[in-house]
Design brief:
29% helix; Chorismate lyase; Arc Repressor Mutant, subunit A; alpha+beta
Length: 256
């Protein structure tokens, strides 16, 4: 129930129904509106505080601080988690997966020997049933082998690997724009040569060993990147768009 409540309040904030600077209804008002006890209400409000959407508490009515929820580390790696945080339905369609020798640039990023094998996959990601992003992912063989037998149409690869005990500790993100190639155009349903937002990521374990090298290409009507600088806090990176919002600390590859 608290997830349903948080999703509803998040949508009201995102749509502007409750604007930045305005107070949310009191706990008693929310209890009456949703016909629930204070427990789920307080859990929902705690989730919105963790996302940086609201402030207040300790007897003060919550005030809206931002219309874009921040993202914890795991949601910046997981498309599924980001979609759930922002109130959308994620989906995925595996196109191919194989154990092969990666191209030299990817092998170098993963610090692999030239003849080393890696697990590579191509997967289409959906938001509310619409093509949103195309994943090209490469994993060190010992990390990716479990994916060969997994149902990758069922959900998050990040969640699967975490359950397997893989140490996904840090990630470096680089953003730029590229033209859609024939594969992008066909799967993302855009014109060949259309501009796409590209996110390249290298994920390492706690010892600094690269485990994953990926390239994600987003439709520009689904995701964008906004950089906000302030004097009193670290830079935030915000994905936003008509069907997507989220924020997270930037990787070293992104500059204001």
């Amino acid at each position: 129930m608290h997830r349903v409540l948080a999703s509803e309040l998040r949508q009201r904030i995102r749509s502007g129904e409750i604007a930045v600077g305005e107070s949310l209804p009191s706990e008693s008002q929310l209890c009456q509106e949703f016909s629930v006890s204070r427990g789920p209400i307080r859990q929902a409000l705690a989730a919105l505080r963790d996302e940086g959407l609201i402030g207040g508490g300790k007897g003060k009515r919550p005030v809206v601080l931002d219309a874009v929820p921040s993202q914890p580390f795991e949601s910046f790696l997981s498309f599924t988690r980001r979609a759930e945080i922002t109130g959308h339905v994620p989906g995925q369609q595996l196109q191919e997966i194989a154990l092969r020798r990666p191209e030299p640039a990817i092998a170098a990023a993963l610090q692999l020997e030239p003849d080393a094998l890696a697990v590579q996959l191509l997967r289409l990601r959906l938001l509310d049933g619409r093509p949103a992003m195309l994943e090209r992912m490469t994993y060190r063989e010992q990390i990716g082998r479990s994916l060969l037998d997994a149902d990758l149409d069922a959900g998050s690869i990040y969640a699967h690997l975490t359950e397997q005990g893989v140490d996904l500790h840090a990630a470096r993100h680089t953003f730029d724009a590229v033209a859609a190639d024939p594969t992008d155009a066909r799967l993302l349903e855009v014109g060949e040569g259309a501009p796409l937002l590209r996110e390249r990521r290298v994920t390492t374990d706690s010892a600094g060993t690269p485990l994953e090298c990926s390239e994600d290409r987003y439709r520009p009507d689904v995701a964008s990147v906004t950089v906000t600088n302030t004097r009193s806090r670290r830079t935030d990176v915000t994905r936003s768009g008509p069907a997507w919002t989220g924020a997270a600390p930037p990787g070293p590859g992104l500059r204001p």
